[in-house]
């Protein structure tokens, strides 16, 4: 029995009738389907990490202050929020396969639009579209992950999310290479788009075709009439974790450039070390939970996040900050998988509704954390803004310690 049960993820998305031919296919063909799904997850992560790795350069090219960059960063979550109300319906109507392919293609193409920006409003428009198509891609590709899981007896969904994390590391390395050879963000983004096109062309045939239908789970439960306090607190824990994660994605490069004063291509070291640590932590999470229990792992993870952020503030030098960002990456890597698993097993609320509540709250942390950093940095400094966000890790540990549902 797996240490973390990812089967609850199947209840988040519409159920589907998968062609019986898939179930009778040879193991080698099923593994090819799994590889294709993994590469689509990889493509999503690569798109996001490609953008994140060039934020410092785009900030310099457009001559944006911290507050102005924070304002621009709001465009991405706004695009995602605009897409949210109807993404699920469109994925259900046209199928996750079609939306996965078109969504990933358009998601990558938006990078070129961002690279062409010469004015702040150009950047804002590009980020809005980037966020808009990110939401479609995310829902559809995750649906494919669930459908692929149905073809295997052992849990494999965790490996898909690991692929997303590995793509973040790979994207950071590519970003380092592009800075070394002095490619502009536009040249870098065109290369990234071409890479995604290759992934799609070599794997789209293996993306599962399904006949989707609404899940139709009947329940009288209404969150607004009878909110579950446990789910609210689990959502707050995830909010703190994902806010810390989002800040690392968007501001680690800027921190290394403006606070650490890292020379040239070394500005991406903070982001790179963070991604390596986060990816490693996700693959180690199962082992740690089995040995120490979810409660201890989460409490320690929260403390590690705060320690890492405060270490970066107190020791603004390349090597200490690399270690500090690795600590943050390891801390945030454990929060979401463990909390989602606990929420999915809530006995009082149907799994799908429980996860929707927790993910909605946590998603806000990932979206609004980075822009808020910009405003705090403008009023004080980037170092102080990181110090203030460091409190989130302490909040995680305190809330986990008090919640009885976490064992």
Features:
single chain, 407 residues, mainly alpha, 16 helices, 76% helix
Tell me about this structure.
- This protein is an all-alpha fold.
- The protein is 76% helix and 1% strand.
- It has helices at residues 20-23, 27-53, 55-61, 66-73, 75-94, 96-115, 120-149, 157-180, 185-203, 229-258, 269-292, 294-314, 318-344, 351-379, 382-389, 391-402, and strands at residues 16-18, 210-212.
- A two-stranded antiparallel ribbon has the order 1-2.
- Helix 10 packs antiparallel against helix 13 (318-344) and helix 11 (269-292) packs antiparallel against helix 12 (294-314).
- The chain is globular, with a radius of gyration of 20 Å.
- Mean pLDDT is 81; it is low at 1-16 and 212-221.
Uncertain ranges: 1-16, 212-221
The secondary-structure element order is: EHHHHHHHHHEHHHHHHH
* Helix vs. strand class: mainly alpha
How many individual helices?
A: 16
The main pleated sheet reads as:
2 strands, antiparallel
**Strand content bin:** under 5%
Number of strands: 2
Strand arrangement across the biggest beta sheet: 1-2
Which value, in Å, is the CA radius of gyration?
Answer: 20 Å
What average pLDDT do the residues reach?
81
**Residue share in helix:** over 70%
Distance between the termini: 18 Å
Shape: globular
